Amino acid sequence: MKIRTIILFALLMPALAHAKLNVVATTPELAAIARDIGGNRIEVVSLAKPTEDTHFVDPKPSFVVKLARADALIEGGAELEIGWLPPLLENARNSRLATDAPGRIAIAPGVQLLEVPTALDRSKGDVHAMGNPHFMTDPLNAKIAAQRIADGLAKLDAAGAETYRSNLAKFNTRIDAKMIEWHKTLAPFLGKRIVAYHNTWPDFGARFGLKIDLFLEPKPGIPPTPASLAEVIAKMKAEHLRVVIVEPYQNRKTADAVAIATGAVVVPVAQYPGGVKGTEGGYVELIDYLVNAIAKGLAQ
Amino acid sequence: MKTVWLCILLALPAEMSLAVENSELDALKKQVLQMQQQLQQLQEKIQQLEAQKTVAPPATPAPATAWSPSQPITVARAGNAYMNMSFDALVNAGGSSKADVTKLQLGDHDPSQRGFSLRNAEIALDGAVDPYLKGFANIVLKLDNNNETEIELEEAYGQTTSLPLNLQLKAGQFFAAFGRQNQQHPHAWAFVDQPLIMNRVLGGDGLRNLGAQLSWLAPTPWYTEAMLGVFNGQGGTTFSFRDAANTYGRTALSRGLRGPGDLLFVPRLASSFDIGDTQTLVLGASAAFGPNDSGADTRTQIYGVDSYWKWKSPEAHGGFPFVSWQTEAMLRRYDAGADPTVPLPAETLEDWGFYSQVLWGFHLGWVLGLRGEFVSGSNGANDVADALLRGDRLRLSPNLTWYPTEFSKLRLQYNYDHGQAFGDAYSVWLQLEFLLGAHAAHKF
């Protein structure tokens, strides 16, 4: 009996020593922030790749396995994941991730979403009922996300609560310090209009005083047509717009053609750390890149 | 509120200064000054916080929580409604070199005549019943060739959400987990018609019935799911089992359930592996065992294997570009009873076949597809009468699909068909799909 207990204990020891929280994030920027907050107390994976269109992630069976074993799920939660997360969760049958379970950490409920439609009408393209789900491009929303992640993790792992709190404080301090720098970098371009492929950037624009409200897509999710592009080109010429931003999965050729026709520059951008080269480090590195690349583009 | 207090505080000393003595006045002055300073500090703090919060004030008003007449379909608003509600229609148009299209297109949702046909308009409902159950219903409306409406309760089942040990139970009327395509609704299919081997062994309606299914997610590092379905196994949606309308010439016995042994059992095992970051492979093996109606103790066994491979670009936009390859092979052993009245001997009918289809999503919204199929089987005593259901048949189907958005599609398909029963046949079908409302996302 005694020997059995010892063996059992010996077997469990490594498991206990490495009892890290198993965290799944739907998108890479949430995973990056979770890593900042959780440190070595958690193990994080992101389901979506930083280079892909997160509206259309394949609900791969391997994701079911990850979700089945997860202690926590961090999701944006504003319908960005609606096309692929529900069937995964349904098959993962993990009650720790049930809606309203402590393991389910959704960010959107804490965020004031922009562009909430007053009526749902698909003739206007892919409109999100809860508002624009790309809210994480605003660093102050990232602070809200960090707060919600820290709160969520502390609920699941009380022993680590102090770590999460101090990591959150570190994250916030870092963002606050960077905000001053980012505002300063973009200050000369206040009120400038930028062209984007898709309406991903209202939060980023509002935060830094940029107007990112002209799109290559005629309607959200609807591919550009020659006629719609001609309209954009005419507007760009009339207003002397100089910068087109395009994400890794969007049609670079279309953006290039528009840039050539208007004398603008194409600035590659991404919503997710690792989406463009040099942003692999994390969320702050990503915004650093975005701010500097856009400022450089506008300065030309 | 703050301003009111401020006014009172500022107004107070002015009135009081007339009445009180100097020393008290000084003290009061000091206090007021302190308070003013504190207020100023607080105001500065508020301004700071507000500046941080909204550099630019939000252009849109705060989300309206109350219902307003400008929200016409609020009832189906995802996350804000008790269930997803959707309506999806598949409208076919086209023609075939054979006048009677129903002799070629044996699937219940396939194009059914030259010209226009509408064989699948489904109302899909799903949502959480309570913390323990999810509910699904699929009500399908079809127009027959006389334009009369047929209705079928295709699926209606409850499924558990929180059973322990990685278990999940579902019960009701639902598609059996046999292979891949049998579990998909027609609007998720990659071709306008049901594969031939499914026509032959699972039936034109697919294999679906009243029953229950237990599934278990194995604790393996890769995805493995084991399922066991138990069904009544009776009626037209269990074509190879106790379906009185399908007995290969024998007088149907239409026997009821005598015991648990007369139930239809459908086990399935599926595994999936990721090959790097961009490729996924799913392999499955299924079987179905149950009695059939052609004799007193005659039984049917169906075996199937399926594979699905998909590559998707790491820079996929709207899910494109991708390449996928899906193959299913099935074998059926149908013990047909002896019927001296016809007369037909006791024999075992063997049917087998496969389909294999490659899809290439070459550009955002555009998919090229090619499907090849072959079915064959042993010779049976009643084959002349069963010519459509037996004998060799080959079909080759290239198609092109355009998805303007994920809520609609336009598909053009050509079928080259060669069967023992009819020789060569050529068909062209155009299919339009449109989806209204909130539809639950599909599995991989």
CATH architecture of the largest domain in chain A: 3-Layer(aba) Sandwich
Which parts of chain B are unreliable, with pLDDT below 50 for 5 consecutive residues or more? 1-20, 54-78
Which residues of chain A sit in consecutive blocks of at least 5 with pLDDT less than 50?
Answer: none
- Please give the number of β-strands of chain A: 8
Report the principal-axis shape of chain A.
Answer: globular
Give the helix tally of chain A. Answer: 10
Oligomer: heterodimer
CATH class value of the largest domain in chain B: Mainly Beta
Structural class of chain A: alpha/beta
Query: Ends of chain A: how far apart?
Result: 77 Å
Mean pLDDT of chain A: 93
* Rg from Cα of chain A: 21 Å
User: Domains counted in the coordinates of chain A: how many?
Assistant: 2
Our Rg estimate of chain B from Cα atoms comes to 33 Å
Characterize the structure shown.
The complex is a heterodimer of chains A (300) and B (444). Chain A is an alpha/beta fold and 300 residues long. Chain A folds into two domains: 2-179, Rossmann fold (3-Layer(aba) Sandwich); 187-299, Rossmann fold (3-Layer(aba) Sandwich), CATH 3.40.50. Helices cover 46% and strands 11% of the residues of chain A. Chain A has ten helices and eight strands. Chain A has a four-stranded parallel sheet with strand order 2-1-3-4, sandwiched between helices. Chain A has a four-stranded parallel sheet with strand order 6-5-7-8, with helices on both faces. In chain A, helix 3 (61-69) crosses helix 4 (85-92) and helix 6 packs parallel to helix 10 (283-299). In chain B, a hairpin with a 2-residue loop joins strand 10 and strand 11. Chain B has two domains: 1-37, no CATH class; 96-116 and 160-436, Porin. A 16-stranded antiparallel beta barrel of chain B has the order 1-2-3-4-5-6-7-8-9-10-11-12-13-14-15-16. Chain B has helices at 2-16, 22-53, 196-201; strands at 84-96, 115-130, 133-143, 149-160, 167-175, 208-217, 223-231, 264-275, 279-291, 299-317, 320-336, 347-363, 366-377, 393-405, 408-419, 423-437. Chains A and B meet through helix 3, helix 4 and helix 7 of A and strand 8 and strand 10 of B.
